[in-house]
Amino acid sequence: MDERIQRKVEKLEQQCQKEAKEFAKKVQELQKSNQVAFQHFQELDEHISYVATKVCHLGDQLEGVNTPRQRAVEAQKLMKYFNEFLDGELKSDVFTNSEKIKEAADIIQKLHLIAQELPFDRFSEVKSKIASKYHDLECQLIQEFTSAQRRGEISRMREVAAVLLHFKGYSHCVDVYIKQCQEGAFLRNDVFEDAAILCQRVNKQVGEVFSNPETVLAKLIQNIFEIKLQSYVKDQLEEHRKSDAEQYLKNLYDLYTRTTNLSSKLMEFNLGTDKQTFLSKLIKSIFISYLENYIEVEIGYLKSRSAMILQRYYDSKNHQKRSIGTGGIQIHKRTEAKLSIQDLKERIRQRTNLPLGPSIDTHGETFLSQEVVVNLLQETKQAFERCHRLSDPSDLPKNAFRIFSMLVDFLCTEHIDYALETGLAGIPSSDSKNANLYFLDVVHQANTIFHLFDKQFNDHLMPLISSSPKLSECLQKKKDIIEQMEVKLDMGIDRTLNCMIGQMKHILAAEQKKTDFKPEDENNVLIQYTNACVKVCSYVRKQVEKIRKSMDGKNVDTVLMELGVRFHRLIYEHLQQYSYSCMGGMLAICDVAEYRKCAKDFKIALVLQLFDTLHALCNLLVVAPDNLKQVCSGGMDCSSSKIQKVKWTVLMIIDPWCLSNMKC
């Protein structure tokens, strides 16, 4: 089998070699044939190039002969037509057949150009005839264009427009087209939407009719702006310009916004190279007379509107604003040269806690209204929006600052600061009984209002001035306002805390009796703590809750810590006034324990620590005199209180009081 397969393989190899030789021979023959064919093609190409060169040369020669001939024929025809004008009778079919108006127009246009070069004295009559025929044909073409436009025949309009392109009346043709496009286009109340729809429709058609569509469309837009929009804007604004500033500003903002929106839509069309400048000039031409004094109208309206909002509020409260000021923000300018004695007393009382007569009774009214604030901020917000839209970019920061200044004057000065001044004047002296402390309500409302003011500052004013020198000026003005108000708030809170302490003093003076801590019958004491302690703790808890509702953030802890320290000092000084028996000392410890429990409501570590120390010291009241030194040195536990935790420095301060009261 192996030998048989081997023979078969050798046979196939021989056959393959034979076929390979035949194939190689065939390829060589084909290469030779291809080379011969390539040579023939090269020769044919050279021959074709030679013939083409001859043909081109012949064509140039024919053209050189034919062009003068055509010019001569054309000149002959023009001379023939010119002779007809000289004779005064037009016999040619091209002038008498209305269907050949296109050819007649071409001829008369050329004759009109020729007539311009002829001397007037010899050819005045023929020149006038040619001009008359020129005008007649021009009118016929425009009439034909108008008729075709009404029929909607775009192809005929395109033909006539192409003929009129070389006539002087081509611009009149464009005017007719623009006029007819607007017929029936402004039937609705929204002229801006109608204008956008019209321009969109014409934009699709104008490219099929005219060879310069961008010029025609730009002229249409210019016509719409200068006639339709300008008259519409004038009618809308002049009606309210002098009688109703609010409606005038609203209409101006609305019309300017809608006009710029229309301009943005028109930017999509091809209006030439600098369409942005073109549209901006059109808008400026409409509104320039209104924008020149816009900010003066805005400030005037904002001033009168803000004053009306405030006055309406004070009228609803049956309140006549006083001229109150403490030197921070002046509320009103006095016209009197001298202050009365009552005014002088009032100013001294505001700066101090001296009882120089009764305070102003406001019947608990804060004279702050969120409704008024929202109205003022809303008016200012709209003013900022109008300012952003209507002001020139170079004047925008300056105009925005003027609006911000008006907001500061009426919101911060005339409303918030006036309420703070009135609130300060309404705080009773610290020795008043049953005083109504409502200044914390003023603080709460002023804080809420200023948050709204700060939000508008960041949301609406900052974007307008962020990249201008006015930014630092606005920030400084805002900072000054905050600092001035904080001074008055601090003063009011301080005097309110003094009044709270004064109320506690009245309670302790009225309710605390000397026999509370030195009862006649020490074996028959049934109370856990004194009545004065109960009332003071109840009063303190109400005030703590009121402070938490009136303030936020770290201010709550700061004020509560101050109240807690003063409360501790009051109780400490109060306890120093009494002598104590053994049972009375126990009652004092119980009172201080209740005060300490009340102090826990403050949630201030320092206040709780002070009362813990006071409670620990009060345990000395029940220590026998012989054991006092041992207790102070920490060697003995006293009534389960850990006196050893009290610092020696505190004991050195309190010790004289302890010793003087241990002689019972």
From TrEMBL:
Signal peptide: none
GO cellular component: exocyst
Residues annotated as domain Exocyst complex component Sec10 N-terminal: 2-92
Ranges where the Exocyst complex component Sec10-like alpha-helical bundle domain occurs: 103-182, 189-637
Keyword Cell inner membrane appears in the UniProt entry: no
InterPro entries assigned to the protein according to its UniProt record, in alphabetical order: Sec10-like (IPR009976), Sec10_HB (IPR048627), Sec10_N (IPR048625)
Alphabetic keyword roster: Coiled coil, Exocytosis, Transport
Gene Ontology biological-process entries: exocytosis; Golgi to plasma membrane transport
Coiled-coil features, chain-numbered ranges: 2-33
Protein's UniProt keywords contain Transport: yes
Similarity comment: family membership: Belongs to the SEC10 family.
Official protein name in the record: Exocyst complex component 5
Biological classification of the source: Eukaryota, Metazoa, Chordata, Craniata, Vertebrata
